[in-house]
Amino acid sequence: MKNTMAAVVCSALVVALLTPVPSLADVQDFVHEPYLLSTGVDSRSISFENPTGARGAGGTAASNLGVGRKGSPSRSLKPGEEVQLCDIEGPGVIRHIWITTRPIPVNLRSLVVRAYWEGQEHPSIESPLGDFMGFAHGKVESYQSAVHSLGQSAGMNIWLPMPFLKRARFTLTNEGKKDASLFYQIDYTISDELPSDAGRLHVCFRRENPTTLKQDFVILPKRTGKGRFIGAVIGIRSLKPGWWGEGEIKVFMDGDTEFPTICGTGSEDYVGLSWGIQQTPFMYNGCSLNYKGFVSMYRWHLPDPIFWEKECRITIQQIGWKDGLAERSDDWCAATFWYEPVPSAPLLPMPDVAARTADINIPK
After folding, report:
1. 107-144 pLDDT, tens per residue?
2. pTM for the model
3. 172, part of any domain
4. I want to staple 203 with a disulfide (CB 3.0 to 4.6 A). Which of 65, 125, 227, 300 is the partner?
């Protein structure tokens, strides 16, 4: 009997040792392997027409045309109202979010999206809706990148995968003074095989209006533990004539002190452009808005990853050109995207609605 039990334990141990542990590389790639049919995952979607994503539960509300005939496509959020966009049990991956509302800058900066992974009480994503969906200042200008696509009438999409093991919860809050119409859809899969240390998407929003002279603008406040920087949507409102973009990006990581490991050559250089800023959006880099001193630009580190093991902090200098290099102070903001495991530390406080919406109307 003892020999039999020992053999069973030994066999189980051998199987365990030979069975590969899921890693991020094992997560199924449905884009580049569209022919895979036996994936083991279940496709789901949440909207106001099916707020739980339950199988067979979509489109049950009634309109004047009858049950199931577009009975609940949208809602209007009153000032101060919060709506829960989803509360999903894992494991799973949010694959895509589409959302639209009134394409007005103040509205897009007043609506706040928050995401909570694995039951954490503090959000891992906290950002104005427009900045989270790929554009600064709340100014809608149609474009496409590897992460976002934006239609002319504020049809907003984000495509970054957002894995979770136990629970994913998203909310949207109207912190503005007017009602806000809201249509949305969250597309996701469940029963995905995910590694326990898979990074959860984190997003923070910062704005300094104006920045402090000779003090670099912080894109990513210091994070500890391992992680991966994905990129940022950066907004600039120049407050004085002349070129604002000579500042270099600095990535301080894993023990860097006074000087960084990764150092850029200029602000427009960081987003893959040159000799000033041009409204030229590309897949991983570019500028989607350059109008009357308002700029919205972005950079995505997907094919050129930035990983850290212990800590990371990212800044960009406030340097311009006026008969040579010169320190400047302008209005800068950034929605910054990265992955790190949970539990994770709380985000720094986000600017309140008054600070977020000040000075964002583009002069006519």
Report:
1. 999 999 999 999 999 999 999 999 999 999 999 999 99
2. 0.92
3. yes
4. 125
